[in-house]
Amino acid sequence: MSSADISLTTASLAYTVPPVDGVRAYQKINVDPITGVRENNFSRTNHDMVIENVRGKEDQYTLDNSGFQFVRSPAKHTSFTNDEEIEREYYPESIELLKKLTGASRVVIFDHTIRRQRPGVVDDGPQNRQPVAGVHVDQTTKASIARVHRHLPAEDAPGLLEKRFQVVNLWRPINVPALRWPLGLCDYRSVDPSKDPLPVALVYPDREGETYGIKYNPDHRWKYLRGMTPEEVVLIKCFDSVQDGSVAVFTPHTGFEDPTTPPDAPNRESIELRALVFYD
């Protein structure tokens, strides 16, 4: 059975439930060495959601209308085993790809994460990142502006912030097709931006970031590209400074367990780059 033969799947997605006392939600980035979990003050609740396979209809979804965009673009760098090589070889080709696809004048990649699914292994550091099982957005507006100040020269930041900019993730399977624990993406046109996102402080040992947990909304329309290959990428918009209702501002997303996954499918491996995307 090919990936195009399955048009819909239903999966249990974990949505964020705000803290009961109305305090600011937070999550520590590192796991507790004793409990093996990340300390936080909110909970999650699972909801079964229908997820549409858009293979064959990829061109209907763009960064501006839905908040995500699928593209076939084989990478020159294919090993993804050494961070220095990734930064030296994969970053430059990805910057050029992002510029070509978005029309941006400047792209700055500020980090990357490699995820290798290892059942039973604790997600306790950069080398052991597992697929994320929770609906989220990587950056809030506050965090996106802070990223510009953090990663761009001080003399450049004010001018860049006066024009349109975005935070865009570039996600790619590595080594094998992503049949197991694929990536689900929520069409922004089904999101209520005034009610669905919950700011969550992301507490690092030396600083604080901020992400969005996403609250359950039965109107959410979920999509995925079944069996994404290493020759395919998806651009995921996490922030857009244009917030007048004309374009998608962010894309809730999550890894999920697909009940249609073949039992012999290999464990998922993927890389995501996070980039600041600027326009003249």
Task: Explain what you see.
Helix content is 13%, strand content 36%. The strands form three sheets. A five-stranded mixed sheet has the order 1-4-12-9-14, with no helix packed on it. Strands 3-2-10-11-7 form a five-stranded mixed sheet, with no helix packed on it. A five-stranded antiparallel sheet has the order 5-13-8-15-6, with helices on both faces. The protein is globular, with a radius of gyration of 18 Å. It is mainly beta and 280 residues long. The chain contains three helices and 15 strands. The longest helix is centred in the first third of the chain and has 20 residues. It starts with 7 loop residues before the first strand and ends with a strand.
Task: Please state the overall shape, judged from the principal axes of the Cα atoms.
Answer: globular
Strand content: 35-45%
Helix amount: 10-25%
Distance between the termini: 46 Å
The largest pleated sheet is described as: 5 strands, mixed
Work out the radius of gyration: 18 Å
How many DSSP E strands?
A: 15
Name the strands of the widest sheet in spatial order.
1-4-12-9-14
Strand-and-helix sequence, N→C?
Answer: EEEEEHEEHHEEEEEEEE
Structural class: mainly beta
The average pLDDT value, as a whole number, equals 93
Q: Number of DSSP helices?
A: 3
Extract low-pLDDT stretches. Answer: none
Which features characterize this protein?
280 residues; mainly beta; five-stranded mixed sheet; 15 strands
